[in-house]
Amino acid sequence: MSFSVKNLNAGYDRKMILNDVNFSNIKNGQLVGLIGPNAAGKSTLFKTITGLLKPKQGSVVLNDVDLTQEKREARARRVAYMPQIFGCNAFLSVFESVLLALKQSSGWRVKANDIAQVEKTLSDLGLSHLSGRGLSQLSGGQAQMVAVARTLVREPELVLLDEPTSALDLHHQLSIMTAVRNAVTNKNIIGMIALHDLNLGAKFCDRLILIREGKVLADDVPEKVLSMPELNDTYRVETSLEYTKSGAMFIDAQLGNAYL
Amino acid sequence: MADISQTNINTAPIETSYASLVGRRALILGVSTLLLILCFFIDVTNGPGQFSISTVLETIWDKTSHGIRLEVIIWDFRLPIAVTAVLVGAMLSVAGAQMQTILNNPLAEPFTLGISSAASFGASLAIVLGWSVIPGVGHLIVTMNAFFFALATCAFILMATRLKGVGSETIILFGIAIFFIFNAALAMMQYMASEDQISRIVFWMMGSLTRASWEKIGLGAALLAIVIPFCLMRSWKLTALRMGEETAESLGVNVARLRIEMLIAISILAATAVAFVGTVGFVGLVGPHIARMIVGEDQRFFLPLSAVIGALVMSTTSILSKMITPGILYPIGIITALIGVPVFISVILSTRKLRQS
After folding, report:
1. A9, A151, A222, B298: least surrounded by Cβ within 10 Å?
2. Domain residues for B201?
């Protein structure tokens, strides 16, 4: 059971964003952080994997099946994608919004096991107390957490989360990351998460993939990727990987004279 | 993690509370339908000659039970008008509800997208120049011209949504542009028209139920019977669309296809409704907004309730149009605007309050 991307080229109209992206052998239960500066192609890569964007070339292989050859509905059942959330003014409750994510692939009528599945997903993420609240009444952190619930409720094989921690305070960043980490481990699924905060990647991910200008620059365990010299040029900062007394990694970064 | 991941203490009631929520919505739908039926009968009993509900019911049941005079009054005048009010209200409201859903814009409806203005221009072409877009339609020339222009405008909007980089705001701006273009063209037609023709155009533009007929009713009912199940079958996809285009697509919804399917269905619905009764604004805004406030945006309830509320608004309008000055039937377009605009403003204000709370 593994996930890999081979020779993936994709873009919009004539502008190519992804240039021969390759990575392989992401195993079940692994959480992979996708890191890189703005406009590196992280969202485009996710959209191509999900099928929202048709690749010009290459394959996306999940458990020996090429997703690019699968139909939209079949692919959406196996791959759950959480786009960046910019608020929502729909007159729907949290419970209804998670239920409708489930109902896209499980018939028209709401059955008792649909309700149980939504209930369990909300409960696993500690969101049951928000069940009846309107989406427009949620805080930014709560809305992100509910979006994670919508992503997980269909029990996909692969989850892709596009910057779920952006614009959140530290408490909510850690809440989201802990929930995602636990879901990936407990459900034994594959998780990929686009991140700007390298320290979150160091703390929660099993593997980091660094991309710049649509190319994979590094793909390894966080300790190795975060100590590579390419990191400095990619982010245009001077970085150094440090360790706390308890042994936890963290990135210390400064602009440095070379990048001013 | 106090606020979002605290241990849940009331897990058990979720199933019950969702079941009770669904039950409450079904009850609201049932009560609204009963209210609509009541309104419909009040509409039929009201007019220059007042008849009791029992007389009306007996005449509906058996045409000849109270003589030829009552048969003509009820079956040829009042019933067609009352049924048309219900049907057109439902058609405009369903069209408005789905335009708002697929364009993700609460201001979208046949009137604001310029469809009614286009229909008015089509009607004026027939009235002033006697020019028919579809040859050989005989006495239906005004209705068919209105239908053609309304449908052509819908097709234009449909094509505009296919253009790259055209968002839902742009579509509304297109609608405003269409509205002004056809209003200018209509002014030109009025300038060219005779006094009699001007009065016919103005009467058409004000919207009237007196153009009702059993043929039109049959067509309208058939369309509703096709479009409502068509939308209901797609209710989970349509509800997902309200979460945002990207979220819907990430859930596996083919948004582009859904938009086209829905636009075709509701274009025919809106064009037919406008061709039947002329310009009737705000029903397509008020119906869905009230429904949304009451049952939220789960399309399984939102869509049928929008239809019922739209029908209720039109039926009430039909009653009011007869009651303002006994013996005079006021054009409904004036009344829907008079009722619709304040209701619309109050809906906007209460929505704002709801969001703030």
Report:
1. A9
2. 87-356
pTM to 2 decimals?
0.86
Structure tokens at A81: 């994608």
What residues of chain A lie within 8 A of the CB of B347, using their CB? none
Report H helices in chain A: 42-50, 72-78, 94-103, 112-124, 140-152, 170-187, 198-204, 222-225, 230-235
Q: What is the pLDDT of residues B122-163, one digit of tens each?
A: 999 999 999 888 888 777 888 889 889 988 998 888 788 777
Which residues of B lie closer than 8 Å to A, measured between beta carbons? 1, 3-11, 14-15, 17-19, 22, 233, 235-237, 239-240, 242-244, 246-247, 249-254, 292-293, 296-298, 354-355, 357
Are B15 and A126 within 8 A, CB to CB? no
Phi, psi (deg, nearest 5) at residue A222:
-55, -40
Contact A132 B4 (CB under 8 A): no
Using an 8 Å Cβ cutoff, are A256 and A237 in contact?
yes
Number of domains in chain B: 1
Inside any domain, residue B208: yes
* Mode of pairing for the β-strands spanning A190-195 and A31-35: parallel
pLDDT single digits (tens) B160-192:
877 777 776 787 788 889 999 999 999 999 999
* Residue A175 touches chain B, beta carbons under 8 Å: yes
- Look up residue B76 and give its amino acid: D
- Three-state DSSP state, B207: coil
Is B172 inside any structural domain?
yes
CATH number at residue B330: 1.10.3470.10
